[in-house]
Amino acid sequence: MKHYRVSVWLPMRNFAVASACAALSACSTVQAITNAVLPGSTPAQAAATALAPPPAAEVPPPSPSGLKRFSEVVKDAKVTPGFFTTYEKDEKIWLEIKPEQFEQLFFFSIGNSQGLGERGVYGGQMGRSYVAQFRKIGGLVQLIAHNAEFTAKPGTPISNAVRTSFSDSLLGAALIVSLPNPDSKSVLIEANALLLADIPMAAARLEAAFHQSYGFDTRNSGFTGMHNMPETTSFAVSAHYWLGRVSLSASGTQGTSTTPLPETLPDVRSLFLGFRYTLAKLPEPMTPRLADDRIGHFVTTRWDYTTDLAPDPRVRYVDRWRLEKKDPAAPLSEPVQPIVFWLDKNIPERYRSAVSAGILEWNKAFEPLGFKNAIQVQIHPDNADFDTSDVRHATVRWFLGTDASFAIGPHRVDPRTGEILDAEIAVSEIWTRGPRRRFLEELPHGASGHGDTDCSYLADAYDEMAFGMELLEARGEIEPDSPQSEALVLATLKDVITHEVGHALGLRHNFRASTVYSAAQLSDAEFTRKHGLTGSVMDYNAWNIAVKGERQGEYVMSTLGPYDYWAIEYAYRPLEPANEKDELAKIASRSTEPFLAFGTDVDAGFGGSLEGIDPDVNRFDLGADPLVFFQRQLTLARELWDRLQDKQLAEGEGYAVLRRNFDRGFTLLGRALPGAVKQIGGLITVSDHYGSHRAPLTPVAAAKQRTALKWLETGLFSVDSFKFKPEFMSRLVMDPFERDSEGWVNPDYPLYLRLLSLQRGVLDQLMSEMVANRVLNADLKLVDPSQGFKLSELYETLQNTIWKELKTGQDISALRRNLQREHLRRTVNMLIQPSPTLPADAKSLTRENAIALRASIQTALKKKGYGREAHAHLAESLSTLDEALKAQLQRSGV
Question: Do 432 and 390 share a structural domain?
């Protein structure tokens, strides 16, 4: 399953910890609580049960003797024919397995139908999937996850080595409970024994989220539904998890850990999760399509050992839906099987048109390939006899959570070919809240993910929307809760849905797409309506807000970009097998065209940090020059701050709205910074193949690196960028309810820390060993190394910029003292605790600069004009440098 997720953490209620503490104080021991959860179990038994492996791993040795006849077991049971025939009676479900169904591969998928609404445990999410088979060993039937990743052509000698070198996995097991049917020779197993176990490994997920050892409780788990069709058999399970003992240190009651207990439960010791297990017929293997690294598709990787002529046994297939024309000869034909997205009935009606529009937007990319209505939308009716969480229905649904808001567009694939079999797009319900203005004001900024492939587009899109609408309202260009305001919200929702559907179709992010249009084109309303804001909806596209006095293009990305057409063409264009290799090469060779620029997550850097090497590959930038965009965002942030300082609140209105929207300016700057900072030591990277006449690695021009440093000096490091009216600063208080729920004591706005967090990130990047290495290595890529940007210039410019008051004699403000301390701390660390891989030139330059800084501070301390705080700061800095330089000399044996 390809998993991309978008998240925003929202305030959480903190009643659970207090409830747990009260419960613990009322009981003499934690074991006493355990007996209340599961009556009849001793403390030792309870603890053992909570931590025991799933029952499927503990099936007793098979004993075929004494088995009942098939007809006797299912007497008076309800029979439901389907992919696997089932029988129901007395809260038991038996699964009939025919002889030919043993060892036969099928698709086994897990859907998460019931969650907690917090910390990544949400309902309506796609779980794992496997190619599986039933294997019979004596009187035992095993549910096996087949290892499809490693393969060789059947019948070849190497296929025997593959079989003995790599293992399958056991998902569950159950005893055969009947003699073979006299006619069909089929046998029965209990679905209860097979599936009422922790197959999804939710206990481990709960422990990771809450640091509590939740165990699966078979006795209080059961089936809540079963659905059978000719090609699918699915089971809905209510799975109970419980705590044999509440870990006090993990809950923050004792010790130093602050990992919270679950906050949405009536009792933290007990919870139910819902799963839907689907067994589905596998399609005949589709002809796979080889991936190309010049285009961003999700890929399915197989290790094919059939031949040893290839230097790498790995083959990578594009993840794509099976799409075939009904009439192959027609220029435009409907597909044999369209890609249908079902809108779950829980989506409010007012948002269905925007969701549908976001899905159907992709038909524009399929029509040039000869497909009419390749993608379709249907609404799941209330009286439907199927559940959209099974593997046969791609779905868009709303979900609820108290602490997170995300959209996610994962898909399931056939690991043999890369064929996409299912997709589920989940969107947080916060779109339904109103009134609109209050929703935007109360939505906290920032995002946090839950996995290593997180997609934060929806989270940051909220921030973009909130900032943009607040600024437009402050300008008087829109009214809150007006039709225009509602249209912008729906446009943002459509853009997010289009992005997530792109993931569901197999497309990865493209964070270079935002560089393909000029500032003049972005300010042209007609151009942006026709071509969009960037080259792809798979970028994280910023709102296009014009600086006051400039022309205004469209605010939100509203259509597919040229890259999207190209990526869909490579994956889905019908091609004759004999010509496919050559035709795909022709399509991929267009990668040098400017409008098809491509760069994905690894180029941009992960986790919101600045570690990516290419300054043209960023999240939430816009336009051909990232430096121009950074300056524009700083201008817009300052405009909002100026308007907020003069804003007149309504009588009786709380001050918290000022704080929230003031903070959005810093969030806006934080997203714009990477494009400026990554210029320094940056490398322009492209995925071209030989013959494109472009080098895969090109150092950023020295002049542009110097410009970036100058902009950081006048923008981020300058006190003048962050001067605010005292009466305004005295109003920046947090909402009292938020203060209670978050446990914050100090309501004061931490301007020093907010600014310092941005500055720290920049210093971490610029003074890192990876940037030092790239700056030094850039000389190797230049015909004339003397024209390159030098590491000495970077370190000297930074030091002179950050400590410029030493030359001017001006007093040093608290904001500047904080920045200087951060620079000094990194300098000292490089002197006394350098990384083993830090370049020697970086060490020697840092030492030389530290000696010069020490001399400047010593001279400055003799001057008058510094305040008491600044003088103390300089004296302490001098002492710190003395100790660091002395330690360096002692360690070197000098």
Answer: yes
Both 345 and 249 in one domain: the answer is no
| 734 and 651, same domain (yes or no) | yes
Separation of alpha carbons 348 and 35, rounded Å: 43
SS3 454: strand
Q: How far apart are CA 59 and CA 260, in angstroms?
A: 35
Rounded Cα distance, 41 and 98, in Å? 39
Tally of domains within the chain: 3
Query: 3-class SS at 169?
Result: strand
Question: CA dihedral in degrees (470, 474, 479, 481; nearest 10)?
Answer: 30
Provide the residue range defining the domain that includes 113.
Answer: 15-281
What's the Rg (C-alpha) of the chain? 31
Average pLDDT over residues 305-329: 94
Q: What is the pLDDT of residues 812-834, one digit of tens each?
A: 999 999 999 999 999 999 999 99
User: Among candidates 458, 512, 473, 718, which has minimal Cα distance to 621?
Assistant: 512
List CB contacts of 392: < 8 A, sequence separation 6 or more: 229, 231, 232, 280, 386, 422
For CA atoms 805, 810, 811, 816, give the dihedral sign: negative
Task: For residue 44, name the pLDDT band (cuts at 50, 70, 90).
Answer: very low
Same domain, 131 and 242: yes
What is the per-residue pLDDT for 433?
54
pLDDT digits (tens, 9 = 90+) for 367-389: 999 999 999 999 988 887 777 77
Handedness of CA 131, 134, 136, 139 (dihedral sign): positive
The total number of residues shown for the chain amounts to 894
Asked if residue 316 is part of any domain, the answer here is no
Question: In terms of DSSP H, where are the helices of 767-867?
Answer: 769-778, 791-802, 805-808, 814-832, 840-860
User: Identity (one letter) of the amino acid at 70?
Assistant: F
Per-residue DSSP letter, 888 = H
CA separation for the pair 798, 802 (Å, rounded):
6
Q: How far apart are CA 841 and CA 828, in angstroms?
A: 16
Residues 739 and 786 in one domain: no
Phi-psi map region of 549: left, alpha, beta (phi>0 left; psi -120 to 50 alpha): left
Label residue 681 left, alpha or beta by phi (over 0 means left) and psi (-120 to 50 means alpha). left
The answer to whether 622 and 536 are in contact (CB under 8 A) is no
Distances (CA, A) of 19 to 15, 40, 232, 263, 395: 6, 24, 44, 10, 38
- Secondary element (H or E) of residue 278: strand 270-281
Q: Are 317 and 417 within 8 A, CB to CB?
A: yes
